[in-house]
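new request in #modeling-help
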Amino acid sequence: EVRLVESGGGLVQPGRSLRLSCAASGFTFDNFAMHWVRQVSGKGLEWVSGISWNSGGIDYADSVKGRFTISRDNAKNSLYLQMNSLRPEDTALYYCVKDRYKGRQLDAFNIWGQGTLVTVSS
Amino acid sequence: DIQMTQSPSTLSASVGDRVTITCRASQSLRSWLAWYQQKPGKAPKLLIYKASNLEDGVPSRFSASGSGTEFTLTITSLQPDDFATYYCQQYESYPVTFGQGTKVETK
């Protein structure tokens, strides 16, 4: 079974840091680009960051550029998001997401984790 | 950035209705557009990729069309399980962007 399991969310004060992890299973992890997508409660979806299969290509939304860092460890089938200088507006459910097709730099998202909740508040 | 605009934002419909949702892009996506369904408390689910291709396991009452800047998602006969929020997404280029969502609710 193809599965993505996020962890690392929690309550954090503004300005502090948090590191999210995503454990992948059931597919050849190092064949696919991966992403983080977030969703504020009751609102729409916002793409946060993406990383190519070999970490050679990385992109960020403007809203997190310079504060968040995406990385992956293909040996551990894991994706990460280091979040620094957190702001209240970063409060959201963060999803780990897999590209559907390995042959393109960017593709539709066919597998989603259940999400991990990040709350930034004093 | 490519802006995605969905319409309507909310759609009231009954079981058995034909439902159509529209998504417009601020620039050409060619066919790099996906549709997702999200139910409360659940992660989004991929329905359609590359504008008109049905993802495995998705019922055939879902269909989609379009290219360039205008796309549609159609549910031919709405079922009780289809009441949800639907999002379009462009993956023509970074940053990936989503439409604001269309909530399909019971009339």
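bot summary: Chain B touches chain A at residues 1, 32, 34, 36, 38, 43-46, 49-50, 55, 87, 89, 91, 93-101 (CB under 8 Å).
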